[in-house]
Amino acid sequence: MDSMPGNSARGSIGVAFDGRASIAQAVAQAKAAEAAGAATLWMASHLFLRDPVTTAHAVLAATRRVKVALMAMSPYAIHPVSIAMSAAALDELFPGRVVLCIGVGAPGDLAAAGIASPHPVPTLRESIQVCRSLFAGETMNHAGTAFNVQGRRLPNPTDSVPIVLAASGPKMLELAGEMADGVLISAATSPEFIRWCVAQTKQGATRRTRPGHCKTMSIVYTRIADDGLAARNSIRRTMGFILRGAHHAKNVELAGTSLDQQALWDAYRDECWPIVERLITDDVIHRHAAAGTASEVRKRYDDYRTLGLDELIIGGIDDLPGIERALQVVA
After folding, report:
1. SS3 of 98, please?
2. Distance separating alpha carbons of residues 158 and 148, to the nearest angstrom
3. How far apart, in Å, are the Cα atoms of 278 and each of 152, 231, 240, 274?
4. Nearest Cα to 330, choosing from 288, 311, 309, 302?
5. Cα(51)–Cα(19) distance, rounded to whole angstroms?
6. Domains in the chain: how many in total?
7. Are 287 and 195 in contact (CB under 8 A)?
8. What is the pLDDT of residue 4?
9. What does the alpha-carbon distance between residue 164 and residue 3 come to, in Å, rounded to a whole number?
10. CATH number assigned to the domain comprising residue 312
11. Do the domain assignments include residue 274?
12. Which of 2, 59, 117, 142 has a CA between 20 and 30 Å from the CA of residue 254?
């Protein structure tokens, strides 16, 4: 699909927004990212932070070219009919510039909101089916295990919104290869884990009936400073937040990382920041991020580029100077 991120041979550069910065700050950052050549801006859908649809609208209105992705909308928190409505409405206003990324959602966020997430693979499969049928203008007759949508359609169908699946487990990665237009590989991922994810996605693609291939994208947590240690120190808590999750066990294993994830989870829960920062060593950061001086980060991005991804996404930065500098170094 032409509207999909990642059009150049060496892969595009995107920027992830985690919802912590104000919407006004996000708009300023988005304009700077577009000016620096970013291909896609990824608006995170983290419960209890800023609403990605509202932020995406503000960003799309303030920019002209860059694509904006809703990342990753959870069908456990929002019904897939509502997800499709939001994406189609944004595309109606800003045609060809909207990407829909769906995923289970962060387990800790869902638990904090009292939301269960059973049977993730079939639920996400049905979510893709519902969104794609609604985008196509079809009158829905879907009677599934997770969702039942009957006799209704969208008044504003679209053929320009690609569907990306956020995935990290083998079955979900295979589902992406089979059904999605792209796969988004989670943040703080090591090159070894990304290679494994791409292989699982290709395995799923052997069952693909949809035209085109599943494009590959990954978020690279990035931090740059003239003092490399200062850059690493500034990202330790962010890395701890991501790597504490049990779903990162395979990522940690394949990278050969020495990390007590349970101790990290406990320390982060209790806000014991000295313990978090001690557990996220320089070696952990090196294996799972690009943090250091400009030359160190540029070299690390070269490592990620050898993986042949369609888009590398700068993540973990939520200030305008940091985003501008990162794009100058790696774009």
Report:
1. strand
2. 22
3. 54, 15, 10, 6
4. 302
5. 7
6. 1
7. no
8. 66
9. 12
10. 3.20.20.30
11. no
12. 117
Q: 141-143 and 311-315: which strand pairing?
A: unpaired
| Distance between CA atoms of residues 226 and 172, nearest Å | 39
Full domain range(s) for residue 201: 12-228+293-330
Taking the CB of residue 206, how many other CB atoms lie within 10 A of it? Answer: 9
Q: Using CA atoms, how far apart are residues 21 and 27, in angstroms rounded to an integer?
A: 10
Please tell me whether residue 116 adopts helix, strand or coil conformation: coil
Between CA 216 and CA 307 the distance in angstroms is 10
The answer to whether position 176 is within a domain reads: yes
User: In what helix (H) or strand (E) does residue 237 lie, and over which residues does it extend?
Assistant: helix 228-243
Residues 6+ away with beta carbon under 8 Å from 207: 174, 177, 178
Q: Nearest-CA neighbor of 172 among 207, 197, 208, 142?
A: 197
- Whether residue 303 is contained in a domain is answered as yes
Residue 278 in any domain: the answer is no
pLDDT of 3 reads: 56
Write out the chain's pLDDT in tens, 331 residues.
Answer: 445 665 444 689 999 999 999 999 999 999 999 999 999 999 999 999 999 999 999 999 999 999 999 999 999 999 999 999 999 999 999 999 999 999 999 888 899 999 999 999 999 999 999 999 999 999 999 999 999 999 999 999 999 999 999 999 999 999 999 999 999 998 899 999 999 999 999 999 999 999 999 999 999 999 999 999 999 999 999 999 899 988 899 999 999 999 999 999 999 999 999 999 999 999 999 999 999 999 999 999 999 999 999 999 999 998 999 999 999 999 8
Q: How far apart, in whole angstroms, are the C-alpha atoms of residue 152 and residue 134?
A: 9
Quote the pLDDT of residue 7: 46
Q: Which residues pair with 218 in a beta bridge?
A: 185, 312
CA angle 77, 81, 83 (to 5 degrees): 55
Q: How many Å apart are CA 300 and CA 194, to the nearest integer?
A: 14
Where does residue 159 rank: exposed (0-12), middle (13-18), buried (19+ CB within 10 A)? exposed
Beta strands 290-292; 141-143: pairing state: unpaired
